[in-house]
Amino acid sequence: MKIHDITTYLEAWAPLAYQESYDNAGLMVGDAAAEVSGILVALDITEAVVDEAIRKNCNLIVAHHPIVFRGLKKLNGRNYVERVVIKAIKNDVALYAAHTNLDNMAGGVNFKIAERLELQNVRILSPKAHLLTKLAVFTPIDDVQTVLNELYQAGAGHIGAYEHCSFRVGGTGTFKPLAGANPAIGKVGQDTEVEELRIEVVFPSYLEKVMVAALKKAHSYEMPAYDVYPLSNENQDVGAGAVGELPEELREADFLAYLKTRMNLSLIRHTALREQPVRRVAVCGGAGGFLLNDAIRAGADVFITADYKYHEFFDADSRIIIMDIGHYESEVFTKDLIQQYLLKKSDTFAVILSEIDTNPVLYYL
């Protein structure tokens, strides 16, 4: 198994196309063609984490947070980022990050928080738009299932909790092959009519080239007729935050105690309690203050996130309870999420959780 095989597997789960513009997810250090000896999963990549990988014979670290956000102009070891990169290169340890692309996926970071809180009916809090494309292709009736199967295999036809979604409508296709053509149906120089079906499928926009290639591979026509339409629809599987419901409502004080236990917290910063039961819960790992209004619109009783500033707490305005649990604390279980996914691929190497506490924030209690 090569590093490239692992990164391809990770990016099928959390495509790099879904990372935010400021991010730097993906393989940052290392040779993608190198054989994998072991994988260490961490939240952050520090010098101590690289040392741990070396000790445990892991030549690939998969982390949530990228060690390199911006381009490095020098590698002199003058700060922790440069020291980590230098140490990784010297010891042939590859560094990979699945960051906002994993934040933005259904089943990703925020869904892991929801799982810890045993939320039900979990969905994306703020779905992203303009990430879907529709393919329409005109196909002889005998080719329909072959073409659809190839498109499904390439990633088309998935909508929410449904797969193999398509639409088809019948009609008559006409064409006249010219000299030099090699028609599958009809003859050169003769007008031809064929009973065809127009097939429509939706797919993630970043797969457009793959989808067109799959179509041409499966279609019997020398030059199949097809249309590609960008859609403005929201993609319910991609977006920020998550929202769901508790199995049963809790008093606010009881929910705070429950949250502290389930997320293994030392403290919770929160706005004033509203003397109302808690049932619907919105979450966002890391700095999620930008989703406050989405949480309110979703009817959430509480919004769990991190990195709130003093004046931002006022924005709750008695409409919701903001609960700031800390950046590290909100995302630390992402390690388990990544490990569980990678273990499905592991048959010749270990996938190990880092034992290093990388939280840079300490509390005096």
From TrEMBL:
One of its GO terms (molecular function) is metal ion binding. GO terms for cellular component: cytoplasm. A divalent metal cation 1 binds at H65, D103, H327, E331. Pfam families: DUF34_NIF3. A divalent metal cation 2 binds at H64. It comes from the Bacteria. InterPro entries: DUF34/NIF3, DUF34/NIF3_bac, DUF34/NIF3_sf, N-reg_PII/ATP_PRibTrfase_C. The keyword Acyltransferase does not apply. Keywords: Metal-binding. Homohexamer. PANTHER family: GTP CYCLOHYDROLASE 1 TYPE 2 HOMOLOG (PTHR13799:SF14), NGG1 INTERACTING FACTOR 3 (PTHR13799). Belongs to the GTP cyclohydrolase I type 2/NIF3 family. This is GTP cyclohydrolase 1 type 2 homolog. It comes from Larkinella knui.
